[in-house]
Design goal:
Distance between the termini: 50 Å
Number of domains: 2
Oligomer: single chain
Strand order of the largest sheet: 1-5-8-9-3
CATH class of the largest domain: Mainly Beta
CATH superfamily of the largest domain: Immunoglobulins
Number of strands: 26
Shape: elongated
Length: about 375
C-alpha cells in the first residue's frame, strides 16, 4: 500500500468512472463462491469536532490491493492495523480548525483496478462552534502536602505569592494527602496517586506539569510563572465557568454553568476552607526545624463535590451545560471561610504532543474558577 497526496480534482475525476463498493459478477449472492470480490469502506463519511481529533476508516478488499490518498494537509495518517482481506483499519488525525468557516477534506481509497471511493471528512470551525466567544482563563495549581512535611511551607508561600499576583491569573487547591494526620482528605491521596506524586510537597499546574519545591521561594515562584506562560502558549482556553451558591442552614446549594467549544470534557468540583489554624512542621535551610503551632492553612480541600475527584465526563454542545449539587456542611467548618472550586478538563487529543509527563492522566485543566461560598460569579468572556 502507498500513501499519496493528490490534487482534489484528480480524485473526483477517478470517482466519476466508478464508485461501486461491490464488484458485480456471477455468484454475487452465493456465499460459497470464493471468487466474488468485496471492496467495502466503513464509514463513507466522517465529522470531526472543530478542536480536532482522531477518526478511523476500515477497508475490506478481497482481491485487489489499494492505495490511501489524503487530499488535505490538515489530515494525517497515524496508524494502521489488520489486513485488507478481513478488514484493514486506518486511524487518522485531524488538526484543529482555527478558521472562520467549516472545511471539507477527502480521504480516497483507490484499488489497482481503477476504482476510487472518497470518504468525506467535514469539520466545523472553532469560531462558528462558539459564536466567536473567547473565555477569561485562570490557571489552577494542586499542592500536595502534609502537616508533618517540614519543607512544605516553602511551596505554600510560593503558591500564595503567585496567587496574589493578579497578572498570573492563578488559584490553587491544597490537598493534605497523608492519612492519619490533620486536614487529611482521602480524595487528596487519590489524586496524589493519580498524578504519581513521589513525595511532599509537590505541585501540579493545570493537571499538566509538575512544580518542584525549592527552599528559596523565589525560585519556585519563577517556575510557576514560567509554567503558566508555557501552558497558555500551548493550549487554547475553550471553556468558561460560572458559579452561584446559596447557604441554606447546613446545606450549600451550588449551580455551575459551563460554556465550551462542543466536545468531550470532564468536570470536577471541591469545597475548600481557608484560615484553618493547625500546627505545621517547618525546616530551616541552615539545619534543624520547628513546629509552627499557629500556621494558617488556606484553600484546603475539605470535600469532593463531584462524584469523582478525577472528574465526571460530560459532552458540551452549543447550549450551556448546567450542573447542580447540594453539599451538607460539617459543623466544624467555618462557613465564612468556605469557597467552591470548579475545574473543567478535557482530553489532550491532537494536543497530546504538549503533554509534559507521559505518566500523567490523559486530561488537562482547560479552565478553573474558585469563588466564595454564598456568592455568584458569571462566566467571564474575553474582550
Amino acid at each position: 500500500m502507498k500513501l499519496r497526496v493528490l490534487p482534489v480534482l484528480a480524485i473526483f475525476a477517478s470517482v466519476l468512472f466508478s464508485c461501486d463498493l461491490f464488484t458485480d459478477g456471477p455468484g454475487k449472492d452465493d456465499p460459497e463462491v470464493e471468487n466474488f470480490h468485496v471492496f467495502s469502506i466503513t464509514p463513507d463519511a466522517v465529522t470531526v469536532p472543530a478542536r480536532g481529533g482522531e477518526f478511523e476508516i476500515t477497508v475490506v478488499s478481497t482481491q485487489s490491493e489499494f492505495d490511501i490518498t489524503i487530499v488535505d494537509n490538515w489530515i494525517t495518517e497515524i496508524t494502521r492495523s489488520g489486513d485488507r482481506m478481513k478488514g484493514e483499519t486506518f486511524r487518522f488525525s485531524a488538526s484543529a480548525n482555527e478558521g472562520e468557516s467549516a472545511r471539507t477534506g477527502i480521504v480516497s481509497v483507490c484499488t489497482n483496478e481503477g476504482v476510487c471511493v472518497p470518504v468525506v471528512i467535514t469539520q466545523p470551525s472553532s469560531a462558528s462552534s462558539t459564536g466567536s466567544k473567547s473565555f477569561v482563563h485562570r490557571n489552577i495549581g494542586f499542592r500536595f502536602t502534609a502537616t508533618w512535611c517540614g519543607w512544605c511551607p516553602y511551596m505554600d508561600e510560593a503558591f500564595h505569592t503567585v496567587a496574589d499576583d493578579s497578572s498570573a491569573s492563578f488559584d490553587f487547591v491544597t490537598f493534605h494527602a497523608s492519612a492519619g494526620y490533620p486536614l487529611y482528605l482521602s480524595d487528596g491521596a487519590n489524586l496524589s496517586s493519580y498524578y504519581k506524586v513521589q513525595g511532599y510537597p509537590t505541585g501540579v499546574l493545570n493537571g499538566w506539569k509538575e512544580i518542584q519545591n525549592y527552599s528559596t521561594t523565589s525560585v519556585t515562584v519563577t517556575n510557576i510563572k514560567n509554567a503558566i506562560t508555557e501552558f497558555e502558549g500551548a493550549f487554547p482556553c475553550e471553556a468558561g465557568i460560572g458559579i452561584s451558591s446559596t447557604l441554606n442552614g447546613n446545606a450549600l446549594e451550588i449551580t455551575a454553568t459551563v460554556d465550551a467549544v462542543p466536545g468531550d470534557y470532564l468536570i470536577s468540583a471541591f469545597l475548600l476552607e481557608s484560615g484553618i489554624v493547625e500546627a505545621q512542621a517547618r525546616y530551616f535551610t541552615t539545619g534543624g526545624g520547628e513546629t509552627v503551632s499557629d500556621f494558617v492553612h488556606d484553600n484546603v480541600a475539605r470535600k469532593t463535590i463531584t462524584s469523582s475527584p478525577r472528574g465526571v465526563a460530560f459532552e458540551a454542545t452549543q447550549e450551556e451545560k448546567v450542573f447542580e449539587w447540594v453539599v451538607l456542611l460539617n459543623s466544624a467548618w467555618s462557613k465564612t471561610n468556605l469557597s467552591i472550586a470548579v475545574l473543567v478538563l478535557k482530553p489532550y487529543g491532537t494536543l497530546s504532543g504538549n503533554k509534559t509527563n507521559t505518566a500523567y492522566p490523559d486530561n488537562y485543566v482547560v479552565n478553573a474558577v474558585i469563588v466564595p461560598a454564598g456568592t455568584t460569579k458569571e462566566i467571564e468572556y474575553a474582550q
